[in-house]
Design brief:
Length: about 230
């Protein structure tokens, strides 16, 4: 099994890597979220083992990027945060499991193996979603309006997928820059504004179609489903 492991504490990581390698797994260890994103664009992994807090990009932001790109390996968070609200927040964001540091080696291995076995059925279950006039295939990264395909650029597609995974959530421009643009954190904020404008037009995210993609002054954007 090929495992992507994000952990900035090298001493702690070395013990986890040794444990997993002893079981025959191939472990790719990264100390920054941006290194993870680069690797995801070049390789495929069977399981992602993520720390919540790393200096440049959080584990939850890496998870969001995985979802945007239609990459669905099982995701396990390995973190020192054990409050109930933290566990619920991570699971709600799309993680498959949550393990508190320091983990029991046998339990860690057993849970990773169990998640890997269940991975394929999960993919089939989360493929397509209908939102009124819109049909979205998150795996194939395709959008249709009234059964007609909508042509989006790669970044427009990335941004749209993330908005639809965060309906009703206010997303700051800084957060969108990290999650959607990944390795290009210094883009002009007007780039985001232009992409949002294109999505409103192309996907008809307008009140008359039951949607509103609004700009919140000095804060960011929020996609709203109107009743």
């Amino acid at each position: 099994m090929k495992i992507m492991f994000l952990e900035d504490n090298r001493e702690f990581a070395s013990g986890i890597v040794a444990t997993l390698q002893a079981e025959g797994h191939e472990v790719h260890h990264f100390v920054s979220g941006r290194e993870c994103l680069k690797a995801l664009n070049q390789d495929q992994f069977d399981v992602a083992l993520l720390d919540w807090e790393v200096p440049d990009m959080s584990g939850t932001e890496v998870l969001a990027h995985l979802k945007i790109k239609g990459i669905y390996p099982p995701v396990v968070f390995l973190t020192g945060r054990d409050a109930e609200e933290d566990v619920l927040a991570v699971i709600d964001s799309g993680a498959d499991d949550y393990i508190v540091k320091p983990p029991n080696a046998k339990i860690l291995i057993a849970r990773i193996n169990a998640l890997h076995r269940r991975a394929n059925p999960k993919l089939a279950a989360t493929n397509q979603v209908e939102y009124g006039h819109l049909n979205i295939d998150f795996i194939k990264r395709k959008f249709e309006i009234d059964a007609k395909p909508v042509r989006l650029t790669e970044k427009e597609c990335d941004l749209a997928i993330y908005f639809f995974s965060q309906i009703g959530v206010l997303l700051s421009r800084a957060h969108l820059t990290k999650v959607v643009w990944g390795t290009s954190p210094d883009i002009d904020t007007r780039t985001i504004d232009v992409h949002v404008s294109h999505l409103r037009s192309k996907l008809k995210l307008l009140p008359q179609f039951g949607w509103r993609l609004i700009s919140v002054y000095h804060q960011g954007y929020r996609l709203e489903k109107l009743e």
